[in-house]
Amino acid sequence: MDYETKGEISVTINNKPFTTYHYSKDRAKPVLYPILGPSGKRMVRDWPLKKDSPNEAHDHPHHESLWYTHGDVNGISFWHVGEKMGKIRHKEFIKKGKDEIITKNDWYSPKGIVQCSDKTRIRFFALPNGGRGVDYEVTIIASNGDVKFGDTKEGSMGIRTHPALRLKGDVATGKAINNNGVSGRAVWGKPAKWLYYWGKIEATEVGIGIFDHPTNPRHPTTWHARDYGLIAANPFGYSHFQGKPRGTGDLIIKDGEKITFRYAFVFLNGDNKNSGVGNIYTKWVFSDAKL
User: Fold this and answer.
1) Beta bridge partners of 239
2) Distances (CA, A) of 38 to 25, 54, 103, 184, 212
3) Which residues contact 5 (CB under 8 A, 6 or more apart)?
4) Segments of 146-269 assigned E as strands
5) In the chain, % of residues over pLDDT 90
6) Which one of 46, 85, 159, 185 is most buried, counting C-beta atoms within 10 A?
7) Would you state the pLDDT for residue 291?
8) Distance, C-alpha 99 to centroid of its chain
9) C-alpha distances in angstroms, 160 versus 33, 60, 73, 273?
10) Tally of CA atoms within 13 A in the half-sphere of 54 that contains its CB
11) How far apart are alpha carbons 216 and 157 in whole angstroms?
12) Max CA separation in the chain (angstroms)
């Protein structure tokens, strides 16, 4: 960690700015923003966290840079924002280390009732050739009765890319592929170990890889990944992704029990071939986030 102000922790890698963890109580959820990749280039959307950034589509205000939420938790949406939606509130830090933070959060209904809690561990790491990474592990705890993560496409471990990495749009240069070779818009709803979106930001080819860990429930996850720059690992939305009966993807955590999901985001130079994203995924799986 570099420094902390009220509701924010700034993170550097090799003494250069990387990201900031935002967790103030006026937020609907904790987020990481901005995220600076190779050569210090911004890799995520600015809006709605920054209002006046050019070439930004003012859609989906709940797509805030990088975050973890879900659209059906005991019937309540934490994915969307608004008075009738759930909110994830920071409770405490367990650890604030040099390259790692561990937090506890409570998930509140619009009426202020805790639906569940989480323990989230976020690690930050450097990669060769200027690459950077975030290892994001979320343990959902049924702290106040049974909790159901419902079958919906609206979730869960998400990122919204820089406009240039979109597959469509005025400044879009993006392409997408998963580890199975499925590409473009067809990656939506497909199970995969990882996805990679890449394109040119300020004439430099860069990309974002999102990894699903083999220990995760329902690995390889299905993906709510869109051509407008949303990429979200979602192992719940089977009725949407696979046309199965509604509720097939429901996951129930019994009172007092917990379940853990682990993901990684890597910000790299290069396209799907010369970035080495597949090899980086393999190393991550067999590492402790120290790549």
Assistant:
1) none
2) 31, 21, 27, 23, 22
3) none
4) 147-149, 155-160, 175-178, 194-201, 204-212, 223-225, 230-233, 251-253, 258-269
5) 94
6) 159
7) 46
8) 18
9) 11, 10, 22, 22
10) 2
11) 12
12) 52
Tokens at 59, concatenated: 């859609």
* Inter-residue contact 76 to 152 (CB < 8 Å): no
Token digits for 31? 């987020």
Which candidate, 64, 76, 69, places its Cα nearest to that of 114? 76
Q: Cα(68)–Cα(14) distance, rounded to whole angstroms? A: 26
Q: Which amino acid is at 261?
A: F
Tokens of 41: 């280039």
Tokens of 8: 């924010």
Give the pair of three-digit tokens for residue 184.
Answer: 């473009």
Q: How far is 88 from 25, CA to CA, in rounded Å?
A: 9
Q: What are phi and psi of 181, to 5 degrees?
A: 90, 0
Handedness of CA 206, 68, 119, 251 (dihedral sign): negative
Roughly how many angstroms between the first and final C-alpha of the chain, as a whole number? 18
The two structure tokens encoding residue 229: 């720059």
Is the model's pTM score more than 0.85? yes
Where do the domains of the chain lie? 67-285
How far is the C-alpha of 163 from the C-alpha of 231, rounded, in Å?
Answer: 13
Q: What is the pLDDT of residues 53-66, one digit of tens each?
A: 999 999 999 999 99
- Residue range 246-264: mean pLDDT, rounded: 99
The mean pLDDT value for 154-164 works out to: 99
Q: What percent of the chain has pLDDT over 70?
A: 97
